[in-house]
């Protein structure tokens, strides 16, 4: 049996086993289990990406059953990208968490469970990126949602509990709406497999209603404006490693499903006008999220609103996709680069915010003056992550902005380019508001003892990764070409 | 690979400076000075190659269908040589100036990164590569402007970013738009847009967007607002970045845009060159008049810089070969003159805390060598022969009449008079009897004094040798000639 063909299965089984082992290993050994798991998953994800680049997308039948009875996993270029991103961010967050959740801190009640829940969420996310069936998407979304809500509240505290409750409500509402959509779709077509749906979907009101409900539910889960109401509180009040994972990875899980439904499963104009609505909401998110980020006084709220804004960019691919194969290729590569660079930079920014908060003992931006003197690497990391957020060269964010602006100009719909450029300038405004405080010349008394070196250097490592991503764009472009979206659109032979 | 080195060597020096940290001062100075020496030797080698007709170039794939490219042609090398040579001189000066300052690792690190970006702008082979280094230059300058961390510096930094990032956004749209209609367009003497036919309206808008982008750093009015405020930065920053690297990146962008992207013919036939020339002419006069009224020494120099940068823009926009060559030569000449002046401003502030022209009486006796160097540079700036400014102004003036734009000649002549008007009061004020007693012993830190004398002497030497092969004048004419077909200087 070909080992490479087993990679999709292993990418789900390995983190699941890690979660189980970390649960029985006890709180002292759990971090080691998590690290070993993270390294293994990273190796598997990279191997999968290499395999997809060499041999193209493939299906994996769990237990050898096959559709329509069994569970099928689908590994294509886009999925491989998200899996690798998750593995890189996952590894760094795991390393950071070993410093953040100190095993000798007996007062932290929930911290022992962090490792198990985190690996379980990783399992569900990997499954979500790989699943080829709209019902299994529901299962994965529920698993991701429940572990995410629990992780938000793991540190305790009234604010986190309130945020968690709101997050739980949004998550449940999204899951139920999605399930209702799946039921309607199944009633109309009798199919759940995405690939089968792609070839058999015909005009039908029930099926269309079902798909519309599914997309609406996923939009809520992705926190696209105006359905973002739950995100700033949840991402802002969670422990920092959790915020990093939620902002950089979890929202991309539901987004990836929208991407596949809109560009792969549904024929063009199956839901007329939806792509425009998504593009307009994305633009609104960019402006609204950035303006809100500019107004925040607390650092993690600023970073969380920045996520609201950055999610908007991902939705600009939908209106652009209508303009032929060339524009679609540019735009799809653009959003994939954006998902990667935002994933790395935002994780770096949340980890950096967490390190600043530990050092200062509070989260008020106005009182963080002088950070550059005592924690230069940390400040530099925040600044570099900011460069990617603004889409300035040389960074992955610039690559994404360039690709999307080119797509918009080539499509003739220049107003999307205007939105992209405005978004970059607004990001510069809110990032430099933070940076100008960190660079201020005020003597500070930081809690140096709380400053583990890992918490200073890991955010910088992630930010550097987001910057160096600009050199990996040819690789991302090849993986995009190996995605089912472009293969089924006839772009890739 | 060699074509990347003028950019990579300072970049590596910058990163090494960060890695060395605050305490290892000697190692830091050694790394930076060695890097400057290596860069100078390398640029010299590339210049010899380019004069012999071999342009060293290299590209790497970056975005789909677009490559990041560096090409060591004569035009780019002139800017790279100016930035690199003056980096070396400024380093010596800065080591003296920043002797007691805090956060020197950050300062010298970003300083080297700025030079890396400026050399990237100089040698970039196409609009996208140029844009990338142009934006890196904006970002790496910010920490230097806000270096002291005072509220005043942070406010100036905010203003700088507002202008720089706004301009960068316009430039991005221009470059991306051009790429969608013309694909990859490596700079070609005489114009790179031969594949585009028609689309005149689009080309005009793209030209305007790019001018807006470059105009910010070139301090073209009304985009100049950031420059006087940015003078709050430490003197080596004002000297090298706000008289040489950063502002020259803007005018250099305009030179590439007019001569090697659109080409003088297309720029003229589209009717975009004349509005640019008028804008530059207005900037020259208005900035010179404002300079007359400034008491703050560095602000007066800043407005003089705005006027002198527009000399270059105007000469380029006239689309006449001799004026274009004069503009390019003036890029180098003005750098030498203005860095002498900013060095002087920094030195008199650091030594005597003199910031204003009205505080200068007695200065000529207190700091004779410094003020003598300044005087030479001031007369050169006003275009007095045989100093360096005369050569390029002569070319600009004769070039304007050859191109049929006598009005531009009038602008140059009248602004020469205005330059005397804002420079001479500085000298008379310094010569007057005043509070500053004659120096006992050294007039200032020798690490500041000798760089000033060096660049001061350079304004004389370059003026006297302007007619020789390899001088900036000859170099500029050789570099510009291919953009004007059969023109032989």
Distance between the termini of chain A: 28 Å
How big a fraction of the residues of chain B is strand? under 5%
SS class of chain A: mainly alpha
Q: Report the total helices of chain B.
A: 19
Class per helix and strand makeup of chain B = mainly alpha
Number of folding domains of chain A? 3
Spans where pLDDT lies below 50 across 5 or more residues of chain A: none
**Numbering strands along the chain, what is their spatial order in the largest sheet of chain B?**
1-2
User: Quaternary status of these chains?
Assistant: heterodimer
Average of pLDDT of chain B: 86
Strand content of chain A: under 5%
Based on CA atoms alone, the radius of gyration of chain A comes out at 21 Å
List the helices and strands and how they pair.
The complex is a heterodimer of chains A (493) and B (489).
Chain A: H1 7-25, H2 30-55, E1 58-61, E2 72-75, H3 77-100, H4 111-130, H5 134-152, H6 158-189, H7 194-200, H8 205-222, H9 231-237, H10 240-265, H11 274-295, H12 299-314, H13 317-320, H14 324-360, H15 371-374, H16 376-390, H17 396-411, H18 415-438, H19 453-468, H20 473-481, H21 484-488
Antiparallel strand pairs in A: 1-2
Helix pairs in contact in A: 1-2, 1-4, 2-3, 2-4, 3-4, 3-10, 3-14, 3-19, 3-20, 4-5, 4-10, 5-6, 5-10, 6-8, 6-9, 8-10, 9-10, 9-12, 10-12, 10-14, 11-12, 11-18, 12-14, 12-18, 14-16, 14-17, 14-19, 14-20, 16-18, 16-19, 17-18
Chain B: H1 5-20, H2 25-51, E1 56-63, E2 66-72, H3 74-97, H4 104-123, H5 127-145, H6 151-182, H7 200-217, H8 226-229, H9 235-262, H10 264-269, H11 273-292, H12 297-317, H13 321-352, H14 363-366, H15 368-381, H16 388-402, H17 406-431, H18 446-464, H19 472-480
Antiparallel strand pairs in B: 1-2
Helix pairs in contact in B: 1-2, 1-4, 2-3, 3-4, 3-9, 3-13, 3-18, 4-5, 4-9, 5-6, 5-9, 6-7, 7-9, 9-12, 9-13, 11-12, 11-17, 12-13, 12-17, 13-15, 13-16, 13-18, 13-19, 15-17, 15-18, 16-17, 16-18
